[in-house]
Give the backbone structure.
Amino acid sequence: MFKFYLTTLLFISICAEVPYFADNGFSNLLNGCTTTPTGEYYNGVTYLTYQGPHEDPYVASYNHMTKTWKGPFKVLVNELGLYPEAEDKKQADNHGKPTLVISNDGYINIIISGHGGCSKTFGMPNNYGSDGCSNSQRPNGKVGRTTHARSVYPENIEAWYKEDNSGLSPFSTYASSVKMDNGDIYIIYRHGTHVSDWVYQKSNNGGVSFQSPVSILKHHFVSDIRNNTAQHFATWYASCFASTQNKKENVIGCQFTHHYHESGPGNQHGPIRIDGYYLEIDTQTGNLTNGAGAELVRPVTLYEANRKARIFNSAVWNVDLGRYEKWNYDIGGGTFNSIGEPVLLFHRSAPGPDDRNNIEIYYWRYNKILKEWDAPSLLFGSKVNGIPDVLLNIESDDKMPLIVTLEKYSKPEKMTARYMEVENNGADWKWIEEPTMEIMHKNLQMKNIRNAHKDARALVAVWHTKQYYRLYLFGDNGVVPRQNETEANNLWVRCYNALTPEECYNDKNVMFSINDLPDLPPFPNRDTPEMTPTNSPTITQSTSDMTLIVLGIVAGIIVIIGIITVISFCCFQRTVK
C-alpha cells in the first residue's frame, strides 16, 4: 500500500501546477518604458518574449483555447551577454531587451538592441549620434548590435532564422515596436549611446525589410557649463504607441523627456530626466505635430520641443535655495482613449541623479474639446516600485484598466499587483480589489502586451534566486498557471552552472541563416507529430517537452507497477485468510 501512495505522490508531483511559466528571466529584464511591448495577442494565442540567461531573447506562447503553454525557446545570441555567468550585477548591460511584433499574416519578429554599437566594427559611420566604441564600462568590451529574428512559420515559435539583411541599423539602443492597423511596423529607438537622435524605421511588408532611419528627436549641444570645463547636451528618453481599433487612425503618439546629459569632468551622466513632452507622427505624411495638431520642425530640437511640445515644466521653487529646481520627470506609458485622445503616465521624483524614490504617478489627458491638456491627476504617491503601463485594452467608452505594482513595507516584504480603473477619461479613478497578485519579495517588474487578451494583460517578473526571475502572465482573472511544473522549473540552472558560453548557448531549437533557408512546406500542427514532413528540416522538440514525455512514461510505468502491487497485495491477503 505504501508503494501505491508513493506512486500517487510521484505522479502528482510530476504534474503539479505552478503559477509561473518559466524561471529563467535574467537581471533587469522588464523595468523601464523604453522597450515595449514584450508580447502580443494574435489569433487566440499570447506570444511573449523576455531577456533570459546571458541577456539572450527567449520566446514562449499561451493558447487561450486549449490552455496550453509552449516554450520557452532561445531565439538569438545577444552580444551584450557574452560574459561568464556571475552574480555581479555590473556584468549585465540590460540595454538589449527584446521587443516582439507579429505581421498581419502571422510571422513573428523579435528584435534586440545593442548599447550604441560600434562604427569601427560595423565599418560604417553613425550618422545620427555617438556610438559605444569607447564604452569602457562594458566588462566584455561588447557594445552589441541590432539583431532581428523572424519565425520560419507563421504562428510558430519553434524555428527561427536570423534576418541579416532586413535593413535595420545596427546602432540601436532601447528598440521598441509599434504596429499600425494596416500592418505597417515601426521600430523606434535611440540611434547610438546617450548623445544620439531618436529615429524610426518602417516596414510595409511585415518585417521582411525596413526603410532607412528617419530622425524625430534631435540630440545637440546646448551650452558650456562649469566654467567651460563641461558641456550640456540635449538628449532624450522616449516611448511610443499606436492607435488601435481606429481610435486615431494613422497616428503614432510619443511621450518623451529631456535627458540632461553632461560631458566632461564631473559629468552627470545619470538618470536626470526633466520636463514632459508629447508629439504625434502622421504615418501617411511623416509630419510631426503636437497634441493640438500644430506642426513641429523635424527632427525636434530642445528649443522646438520647449516651444511647442512641452506639456509640463518640472521646475519647482526651492524655498531654502531661493531658486527653481528641476524635478525628475520620467515616462510611464501611454495610449489613446476611446475617442482618440492621448492619455499618458509620467512619474515625478525629487531633483538629483540618485533620488528616484518617493515617486508620484501623474495621469495626463489631452482634451479634444478644450484643445488643451487637462490638469494632471495624481493617481498615487510615494513608495511605488516600478512604473505601471497604461494597458492598451479599453473596456468601454469610459473605462481603462491599469495594473499597478505597490511596495508594502511589511515583514516579510512583499509586492502586490493590483488593478485600478480609470473612468470618465481620467476624471475619476478607483481601486479594484480583485484580482491581486501578492509576491513575498519586494522586487517585481512588469511590461505591457499589445492587443492584450483580458486574461493576459501584462508580463510580470518576480525575483527568485541569484539574478533570475520567475515569469507570470497576469490578467483579469489573476495569473495564468502552467499545468506541469517540470516545464517551468530550473530552466536557469544550465546557464548559471555553465563553465563556458558554449555549454549555455548549445540550445536545440532550430536557427537558420536567411541565406541557407531551404524551401519549406507549411509547418504541421504540433499536436500531430506523425504529420511532420520528411522533406523539411528537423524541428527539434524543446527540452521541456522531451522531459515531460520521459517523465510521463516513467510515471505511467510506476503507476502500473503500483496497481499491480496493490492487486497482488490484495490477492495475497485473501489467500492468507
